[in-house]
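Researcher: Next entry in the queue.
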Amino acid sequence: MVLTSDGNDSHPKQKSRPRPASRKGSPREAPEKTGIAPRQVAARLLAAVVDRRVSLDGMLDAENGNPGYRALREADRALVRAVLNTSLRHLPRIQAIIDSLVETPLPEGARSLYHILVVAAAQILYLDVPDHSAVDLAVEQARSDPRSRRFAGLVNAVLRRLAREKASHLTATHAVPVTPPWFFDRLSEVYGPERAAQISDSQLEPVAIDLTVKGDPQGWASRLGGRLLPTGSVRLPAFAGRVPDLEGFAAGEWWVQDAAASIPARLFPDLAGCRVADLCAAPGGKTAQLAQAGAVVTALDQSTNRLKRLEGNLARLGLSAETTATNLLEFRPAEPFDAVLLDAPCSSTGTIRRHPDVLWTKGPADIEKLARLQERLLLHAMGLVRSGGHLVFSNCSLDPIEGEEMVARVLAGASGWSRVPLDPADWPGLEEAISPLGEFRTTPDMLKGEEGFPGGLDGFYAVLLQRH
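Model: Structure for this entry, 468 residues:
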């Protein structure tokens, strides 16, 4: 049995039509329902991501983020984050389900209605929210929005049916890729359809918390109940506490850093006593690795605020580096460095497990544009290295346009430079991440989970170069 937009029973095969709900008079003023505010904020922020390509991180910043979000109490903020991350991780499937329940396409200008439906569907399908609450609050949300008020009956009908039939809809959409079509097509082109599906589905897995430790990684893995990874990182088991409350944080014995993000700084030969520049350094995880390895580090970043954060992180760890706020392309030191690390700005498509909004705020044109910027940055960085010195180029993109292809093009036109091939035998457990040319290429589906521990890691590209 299906409910039409006016709430009446109809034939089981009939779909709900987006016709206005009939209501007499103007809506009555009533106290705001408990729980509606975080749903309203979630719908607005979802619209900002999907329709205006606004990054989620900035809007969810506790100090400078979206005013509506900042006005919520912490429990409601947590709900907003859960709804947004869930909606974005499953959005193509949610879209397919909504389309199957609404016979006539939603009218032009009904985007607010669409986001109300997505937010409610995410709760019904994937979150531990009572179905009746999700439906009731979505209907109230539609009624309180002048743009969607006339479709409150439709919202009620569609979501009540979804709540009854959720199992069948989840089964029917199981094969729908959870990444946008443009990205899934690109993954298929680069990695093949089977790997593309694995990489795409990896964003549905729980996100791991990895630590880079200053020393004795096996000992810290034992103390924290963690798992030692092939990168030397310590992966924490799933837990509900606060990271700063864990043993060793206050004493500066470790810092949070995805296992893949720790790889680039580990590619250099011995750095003890070497002068090293960490370009695009903030928030400082790689800077800390270089300093811990005994290097004399100069950390650069364009943002003064980000450098302050880096300095605070180093202070907690008892490490030091010279910091310089500058545009990298304008940085011309008095003498070249022994080594340079360039973790370049990129599309961040390798971080979809942590940042599912990335795939909805960027597209193919952004990747091409960023690759051109990376080429300029790499060419400038190469001029900062002394003869015989090393350079590591890395980023967290999954696209070879920003990695292998760009580096190959630069090397083809640069005399006196070559790759230093990495040996898979030096990376037991991650041998598959070393390419035939000796470059690093991790993908989010690598590092399978073990009992009590999430799997996966960020997608990263890294290559070690040497100037002759």
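Model: The mean pLDDT is 92.
Researcher: Noted, moving on.
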